[in-house]
Each structure stands twice: as structure tokens, then as C-alpha cells.
Write a structure and sequence with these properties.
By secondary structure, the chain is an alpha/beta fold. 42% of the residues lie in helices and 16% in strands. It has eight helices and eight strands, in the order βαβαβαβαβαβαβαβα. A four-stranded parallel sheet has the order 2-1-3-4, sandwiched between helices. The chain has a four-stranded parallel sheet with strand order 6-5-7-8, with helices on both faces. β7, α7 and β8 form a beta-alpha-beta unit. The chain is globular. The model has no long low-confidence stretch (mean pLDDT 95).
């Protein structure tokens, strides 16, 4: 089935254009001849980073509005690891809507027995654990550890990569993870380097979601 002329919209729920640019770069290898176009947009009204439950609740409504403002796409991706507004957005369109956390976690279960999650902040972990439990994946979770940086701070390349490596090694060596999941879309630029440094597969969540969206479109599901 040809997907020429089809479109995927990737919504970054925070207001950081640097994060949107990183997401867009992560999508480059999924832009293929004959495949759907992939457009990434920024929620200009969002916080610089979605880091609290209050942020999640606020941007959920904004995501729904952004989806409504951009109709006639063949699939949508909510590019925030908390999947804010995912279920509400699914009620607004007949096109599939993907949350990057759900897609990343499900992808990780096909790549290893126990996955570890790299969070940005320790305060994010309880929120993520609730979601892992809701998806029925608690038994597959090796652990989740925070690198101790907010979304905006991820632009500091050396500091971020060093903390990703240290935290990834702990998830591998202490917690027993055999696959890692990046717990923030703002980490996208570091996936390849981290996988090489750690020696484990690393799931970048927006790539996981867009890959699923492409499959749905091309198969007509």
C-alpha cells in the first residue's frame, strides 16, 4: 500500500523549540521515499519543559486544541514522555494518535526482557511508574533512575551525556536492565552515542511512536 501524500503530525507539548528541533532530527531516518511526510510543531503556549503533573494536566488541553487546529493528518504523535492528553486526543479524530511513552515502553518489551528508564528528574518517576502500572508492564521494569536535569538543561551536551552514561550504567549493572528507554523527548540527540557507550539497545520514544504510525498508515490499520 502506498502512503505517498499521507501526513504525520508530531506535537511537542512544551514551548522549547530546541526540543522540537531535536525531535525533528530524530525523525529524519524515518523520512523515506514513498512514506508519509513528518511535520514537527511546538506548543508555543506550553511550559519550557513538562516536568510536573500540573504541567501535564495543562498541556493536555493544549494538545487537544493543537490537534483540532491541524485536521486531516493521517496520524498524530504526542511527543512528551507523560503522554499528556493522549486519550482525550484519541476521541477527537478517526486518525490514530500515539503517545511516545506508551510506544517506547511497548517497543522496549520486544527488545529485551527488562527495561530501564532514564528520567530527567526524580520527581518525574512516580508519575512514570503510575503509567507503567496502568499499561500492565510493572513486571518488565528493571528500574527508573533520574539524571537530575530539567528539560532546558538537556541542551548542555557534555553534562547531559555524562549523566546519561552514569545513569544508564546503573540501570544496566545494578538494576539488570537489558534495554534502556529515554524518558524525555529532549534526549533524542543522544540516543546513538548512548547505545554505543552503554552497549545496550536504547529506545528513543518519538522514533518508536513515529515508526508505529508509519506502520499503521502503510498497512491501512
Amino acid at each position: 500500500m502506498s502512503s505517498t501524500g499521507t501526513r504525520i503530525l508530531v506535537i511537542n507539548p512544551n514551548s522549547s523549540t530546541a526540543v522540537t528541533e531535536a525531535i525533528d532530527r530524530a525523525c529524519d531516518r524515518l523520512r523515506i521515499d514513498g512514506g508519509p511526510s513528518i511535520t514537527c510543531i511546538t506548543n508555543a503556549d506550553g511550559p519550557p519543559g513538562v516536568e510536573t503533573q500540573q504541567h501535564v494536566d495543562a498541556v493536555a488541553r493544549q494538545n487537544a486544541q493543537l490537534l483540532a487546529d491541524h485536521p486531516e493528518h493521517d496520524a498524530y504523535v504526542i511527543a512528551c514522555y507523560s503522554d499528556p492528553g493522549l486519550y482525550g486526543c484519541r476521541e477527537l479524530t478517526t486518525s490514530p494518535v500515539f503517545g511516545i511513552s506508551e510506544c517506547a515502553l511497548l517497543t522496549a518489551t520486544t527488545m529485551g526482557q527488562r527495561f530501564g528508564v532514564l528520567a530527567i528528574l526524580a520527581t518525574s518517576i512516580p508519575r512514570h511508574l503510575r503509567y507503567v502500572a496502568a499499561l500492565g508492564l510493572t513486571d518488565r521494569l528493571a528500574g527508573e533512575r533520574a539524571i537530575g536535569l530539567g528539560v532546558v538543561e538537556l541542551a548542555d551536551v557534555d553534562k547531559t551525556f555524562d549523566r546519561l552514561v552514569i545513569t544508564g550504567e546503573a540501570l544496566r549493572d545494578v538494576d539488570g536492565a537489558d534495554v534502556l528507554v529515554m524518558g524525555c523527548a529532549g534526549m533524542a540527540d543522544y540516543r546513538d552515542r548512548l547505545a554505543e557507550a552503554i552497549g545496550l539497545p536504547v529506545v528513543e520514544p518519538t522514533q518508536a511512536a513515529v515508526a508505529m504510525a508509519i506502520g499503521r498508515i502503510r498497512l491501512g490499520w
